[in-house]
Amino acid sequence: MIDPLTLAENQHYPAPALYVMATPIGNFADITLRALHVLALVDRIAAEDTRHTAQLLARYRITRPLLAVHQHNECEAAQRVVDFLRAGERIAYVSDAGTPGISDPGARLVDAVRNAGLDVVPIPGVSAVTAALSVTGDWAGTFTFAGFLPTKPKQRTARLQALASREEALVFYEAPHRALETVRALAETLGPSRRMLIAREITKLHESLHQCMLAEGPAWLAADPNRLRGEFVLVVEGAGAPTQSDAHQHDAILTALLDEVPVSTAVKLAVALTSASRSVLYARALELKKNGPGR
């Protein structure tokens, strides 16, 4: 049998190169053998939070110079990384948890390195997105990753309205202090009858997974203060493909309402009057507003 660590060691690791590396999102044991090998191989490690990364490195007895590259200094720090690379170094980049560039710093650094004509190498591993989707079920076979929603209600509603008619599942990240408010907004804007998975503290000691209807999500979260702790991944069922009759059967109501009130108000009233899917009515209202009825 071939030793897995030997397989990691026998790969080609060019220099200079930036190695964009996934790290555990909670459980340190989730790090890959290849990631451990590369962390010990590189000349230095760029990190979103050097203190957090130092704890991970200490766990595996790896000592390397650390360079802070986070959302507040990414453009400036990227130039320092490029300079080190031009000197012939290998550099790993890690965010605090999961895969860099996925609602984490890293994308601008990758752009800067690639624009400088230098190599960028992915070292894949754990991701909260794929971890949550793997336990969601067949209703999330295709998905759109929407990351963190805007914190301001008006902007958040606008973003959700833009996503409302998407047929694929929607995946969101959320912080604990906004989780309840966000799930309420999802139910109000996307409609109560979609399925959702609330994944909290994935891979950590208090991990919990709860699948329910969107209408049930706020009450479930509010029922226990412990459910509002930790980092969240929210997976919401897509709108599905509307049939021609679904999309057009309420045109008369929508047209009358659109003559008197804005689109958002017209859709809200139409949902109340017909109990039809909000996402279907919203998409159709936009068509009617743009093209006029019957076109």
Automatic annotation (TrEMBL):
Pfam families referenced in this protein's UniProt entry, alphabetically: RsmI_C, TP_methylase
Subcellular location, record wording: Cytoplasm
Enzyme Commission (EC) number: 2.1.1.198
Keyword Repressor recorded: no
Molecular function (Gene Ontology), one example: rRNA (cytosine-2'-O-)-methyltransferase activity
InterPro entries named in the record: 4pyrrol_Mease, 4pyrrol_Methylase_sf, 4pyrrole_Mease_sub1, 4pyrrole_Mease_sub2, rRNA_ssu_MeTfrase_I, RsmI_HTH, SAM_MeTrfase_RsmI_CS
Keywords, sorted A to Z: Cytoplasm, Methyltransferase, rRNA processing, S-adenosyl-L-methionine, Transferase
Main location: cytoplasm
Domain spans labelled Tetrapyrrole methylase: 18-216
GO terms for cellular component: cytoplasm
Reaction(s) catalysed (UniProt annotation): cytidine(1402) in 16S rRNA + S-adenosyl-L-methionine = 2'-O-methylcytidine(1402) in 16S rRNA + S-adenosyl-L-homocysteine + H(+)
Domain of life of the native organism: Bacteria
Family matches, as SUPFAM superfamilies: Tetrapyrrole methylase
UniProt domain RsmI HTH: residue ranges: 246-289
Database matches in PANTHER family: RIBOSOMAL RNA SMALL SUBUNIT METHYLTRANSFERASE I
Described purpose of this protein according to its UniProt entry: Catalyzes the 2'-O-methylation of the ribose of cytidine 1402 (C1402) in 16S rRNA.
Classification via HAMAP family: 16SrRNA_methyltr_I
Sequence similarity: Belongs to the methyltransferase superfamily. RsmI family.
Protein's UniProt name: Ribosomal RNA small subunit methyltransferase I
Species annotation: Mycetohabitans endofungorum
